[in-house]
């Protein structure tokens, strides 16, 4: 790869074909027809949108609300916390554990009830345990949504029972789910078809929960996440699937057939898109110019993994953009920063990593000697000129004296 000109840092655009080899991409097919009012298919690792239909349309989203409730529980509590059921929680309508006020359960069991059975009383109990009241917890939900970039979302409650101000979008739900899937316990619960929890009102002390998400029983690669329904929202589903190390999230809001459409989207994502590694730690992505070194340049070595998804219907195909600093004054130590590499698609930066010197470059001896020699020569020349001027002045003064009358 050519060296960087010394004038200024340079951005190099490295095409996909010049990058590391990866698995071949299968033949492309058309996206499946989706009748949901809003939908999105998201790659979990990279956040790349593989399919969208009105993905930023803000709509009622029913019990998929509970994904955020579970996320905040995992971020703010211990699974062994003991949570008391308040009168407000015990009186809530809809799907519930039907516990009495004052009864106490482990937070982990309530979390299972929220995610598998979609228990509204458990959701309120968790909200009050964390924030003291439902309105305070809704404020926390909205703050967390803003932090995640879920700008189409406004929460009013922790369970999703209808309120005209309680709205989200398919894209925002995918963002929230992507973060929740970072928690191992969340992944375990949403993938479970059934689970026993400890409930104080049951004679045996245990109650078996069956997951409302029937998609878990329709394909081996499905591993979550959450259903939702109220009259105003229609059928809603956040579905996840994992195949060959890739996890996708499909979100459908107001779909006539949530399970069929979710499977169609997930299968489309696995068949027509593939993960591609554009750069890994140790890859040399150019050479930075060195000034006054034993070598004219040094290899720029990537310090991170830059990976994204490639496939059809992506508006902007990803590419690497390498920026190298230079010229860098010698000496340069191995590991010194020499630039940055970014993985970009259009104007969007998908990932970035620093570039460092792949080896040490010493200061060159010859330039040092040459500089000092030149400096010495300049001093000698200046002294010689001064001496010559002095000699001329002395000689002129002597001639003047000789011409003076005695």
Architecture overview:
The protein has helices at 66-76, 87-90, 107-117, 120-131, 134-147, 170-180, 184-191, 258-272, 365-403, and strands at residues 10-14, 38-43, 49-53, 82-84, 104-106, 194-198, 206-210, 222-230, 234-243, 246-253, 274-279, 284-291, 297-302, 306-310, 319-324, 328-329, 337-345, 348-357. It has 9 helices and 18 strands. It is elongated. Strand 9 and strand 10 form a beta hairpin. 31% of the residues lie in helices and 27% in strands.
Short description:
The chain has 406 residues and is of the alpha+beta class. It has 9 helices and 18 strands.
Topology:
Elements: E1 10-14, E2 38-43, E3 49-53, H1 66-76, E4 82-84, H2 87-90, E5 104-106, H3 107-117, H4 120-131, H5 134-147, H6 170-180, H7 184-191, E6 194-198, E7 206-210, E8 222-230, E9 234-243, E10 246-253, H8 258-272, E11 274-279, E12 284-291, E13 297-302, E14 306-310, E15 319-324, E16 328-329, E17 337-345, E18 348-357, H9 365-403
Parallel strand pairs: 12-16
Antiparallel strand pairs: 1-15, 2-3, 2-10, 4-5, 6-7, 8-9, 9-10, 11-14, 12-13, 13-18, 15-17, 17-18
Strand order of the largest sheet: 1-15-17-18-13-12-16
**What proportion of the residues is helical, as a percent range?**
25-40%
**How many helical elements?**
9
Average pLDDT over all residues:
89
Which residues sit in consecutive blocks of at least 5 with pLDDT less than 50? 1-27
- The coarse silhouette is elongated
- Which CATH architecture of the largest domain? 3-Layer(aba) Sandwich
Strand percentage lies at: 25-35%
CATH topology of the largest domain: Beta-lactamase
Question: Could you name the CATH class of the largest domain?
Answer: Alpha Beta
Task: Give the class from helix and strand content and strand pairing.
Answer: alpha+beta
> Can you tell me the number of structural domains?
3
Count of β-strands: 18
**Radius of gyration from CA coordinates:** 34 Å
Which homologous superfamily in CATH is the superfamily of the largest domain?
DD-peptidase/beta-lactamase superfamily
Distance between the termini: 83 Å
> Order of SSEs, N→C?
EEEHEHEHHHHHEEEEEHEEEEEEEEH
């Amino acid at each position: 790869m050519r060296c960087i000109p010394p004038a200024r840092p340079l951005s190099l655009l490295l095409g996909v074909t010049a990058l590391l080899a990866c698995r071949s991409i299968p033949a492309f097919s058309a996206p499946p027809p989706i009748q949901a009012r809003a939908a999105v298919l998201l790659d979990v690792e990279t956040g790349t949108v593989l399919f969208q239909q009105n993905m930023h349309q803000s709509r009622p989203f029913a019990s998929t609300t509970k994904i955020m409730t579970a996320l905040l529980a995992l971020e703010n509590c211990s699974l062994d916390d003991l949570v008391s059921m308040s009168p407000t929680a015990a009186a809530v309508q809809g799907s519930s554990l039907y516990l009495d006020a004052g009864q106490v359960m482990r937070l982990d069991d309530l979390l299972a009830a929220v995610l598998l059975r979609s228990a509204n009383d458990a959701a309120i109990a968790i909200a009050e345990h964390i924030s003291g009241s439902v309105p305070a917890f809704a404020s926390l939900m909205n703050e967390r949504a803003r932090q995640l970039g879920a700008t189409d979302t406004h929460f009013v409650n922790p369970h999703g029972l209808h309120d005209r101000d309680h709205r989200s979008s398919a894209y925002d739900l995918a963002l929230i789910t992507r973060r929740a899937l970072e928690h191992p316990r969340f992944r375990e619960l949403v993938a479970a078809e059934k689970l026993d929890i400890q409930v104080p009102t049951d004679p045996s002390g245990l109650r078996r929960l069956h997951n409302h998400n029937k998609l878990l029983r329709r394909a081996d690669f499905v591993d979550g996440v959450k259903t939702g329904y109220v009259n105003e929202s229609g059928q809603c589903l956040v579905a996840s699937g994992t195949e060959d190390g890739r996890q996708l999230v499909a979100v459908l809001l107001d779909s006539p057939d949530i399970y069929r459409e979710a499977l169609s989207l997930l299968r489309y994502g696995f068949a027509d898109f593939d993960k591609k590694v554009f750069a890994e730690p140790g890859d040399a992505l150019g050479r930075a110019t060195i000034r006054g070194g034993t070598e004219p340049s040094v290899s720029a070595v990537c310090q991170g993994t830059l990976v994204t998804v490639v496939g059809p219907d992506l508006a902007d195909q990803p590419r690497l953009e390498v920026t190298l600093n230079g010229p860098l004054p010698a000496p340069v130590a191995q590991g010194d920063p020499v630039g940055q590499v970014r993985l970009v698609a259009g104007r969007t930066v998908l990932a970035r990593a620093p570039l460092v010197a792949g080896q040490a470059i010493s200061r060159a001896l010859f330039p040092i000697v040459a500089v000092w020699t030149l400096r010495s020569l300049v001093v000698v020349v200046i002294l010689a000129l001064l001496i010559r001027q002095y000699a001329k002045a002395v000689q002129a003064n002597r001639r003047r004296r000789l011409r003076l009358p005695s």
